[in-house]
Amino acid sequence: MKTYLKTAMLGAALGLGTMVAMPAANAEDTIYAPNLSYRTGPFAATGIPLMNGQRDYIMMLNERDGGINGVKIEYDECETGYSTEKGVECYEKTKSKAVVTQPWSTGITLQVLPKTNVDKIPILAPGYGFSPMANGKVFQWAFNPPASYWDGASMMLNYVSDGDLDTLKGKKIALLHLDHPFGKEPIPLFEAMADKHGFEFLPIPVGLKEMQNQSAQWLQIRREKPDYVLMWGWGAMNAGAITEAVKTRYPMDQFIGIWWSGHDGDLKTVGDKGKGYKSISWSVPVADAPVMADIKKYVVDPGNSLMEDPADINSVFYQRGILISMILAEGIRGAQEHFDTKNVNAEQLRWGLENLKIDDDRIAELGMTGMIAPFSTSCADHTGHAGGWILEWDGSKFAPASDKLTADADAIAVLEEVKAMEYAEANKPWPINEECNM
Q: Alpha carbon 156 to chain centroid distance?
């Protein structure tokens, strides 16, 4: 606890969060990979385990392997508190030597997005950000693998319809969502699917000041009686919604969240009363995965992790943070091999992120079997559109409750193309890679 408080106080003073301890070295001996973190503010409860997982994976690589192909990764956090204004400040502060920017907020991502065309620094936003970033022709410097918010929305609909969306005709599906760019992300997909398959779509926004008091929203849910409530929540909103659902006795088996609404800590507030609540997830915690043994050996046991509760090592968000840093590390590794250099720069990392190949064999080599679905990226596809699973709360933890689900790739591709071109048109002149066809 003292270690974390000391780090947080230093971050508040300097605008920086945590940095993986590095030995004295020349700049060319390391690769600088900053993270625009949020260990403070209204979303800190979810940010802390995610940042801990990201940090610990990089530290494990540095300790176990000496980094990536002999080059250590300088992981550095710049604290944003999830504020878009502070996020842009952090981007400007770190961009001079960064090979990547990891904005974490959809709002920050949207602000940074135009800057990357000029600064030529790739955005890495695994499982978040602006869904049309999947279109690599239009968004040459932005990446959101392994799945976008539209993938998540599609998989949720596939799950509640048993794979046949036409069976949803005449039903009512509510979207309880944060009234913020993040919460509005899935709305175009849901609207398109509602028009196509004949179900009623009911968006119910939750303002930032209403996150912990959602009585008005749940009064509307009781009145509307939706067949399903899908949740696009974050931070305190999740716990507030789950508490209200328990209080109003909404059927938990009809309540499903996006992957950022599947945080162990939120469900622990209601315990057994939350049984049956579900979330779609592109990651699955696997306690006995070999990578977890290595993180425990090289980071946790020596006392170098910032985790306050040892049980968090098996939580959904901590292990998802590990996977996020894995995606970055694999992009760096691929760029090193392709360009035959150890010290990759931002433009070379862009190539690495555009040519990820995380297949079953590579997942096994990384010691992560069962933790993530295979995926690959390309010039045209900056997401990879990996599958996901439904995780269900059993009263004490989340556990897989479905076979692997996949999104409606054809429907999403059309929407990606339309919305990407709308963005480019609205932000002219916007560079488009016309040579990118695959």
A: 16
Residue 434 forms part of a structural domain:
no
Residue with tokens 């065309």: 117
**Residue 288: how many CB atoms within 10 A of its CB?**
8
Q: What is the mean pLDDT of each run of 10 residues along the chain (438 residues)?
A: 35 48 58 96 92 98 97 97 96 97 93 94 96 96 97 98 97 96 94 97 95 94 97 92 95 97 93 96 97 98 94 96 98 98 97 98 98 97 97 95 95 94 94 85
d(CA 253, CA 274): 10
Report the helix count and the strand count for the chain, using DSSP H and E: 15, 13
Instruction: For the beta carbon of residue 297, count every other beta carbon within 10 angstroms.
Output: 13
The answer on 272 and 248 residing in a single domain is yes
- What is the 3-state composition of the chain as percent helix, strand, coil, each rounded to the nearest 5? 50, 15, 35
What is the extent of the structural domain holding 144? 2-148+285-385+416-426
Angstrom distance (rounded) from CA 116 to CA 119: 5
Q: Are residue 311 and residue 207 in the same domain, yes or no?
A: no
Q: First and final CA of the chain: distance in angstroms?
A: 49
Tokens standing for residue 405: 């689900």
pTM over 0.85: yes
- Do residue 279 and residue 289 come from a single domain? no
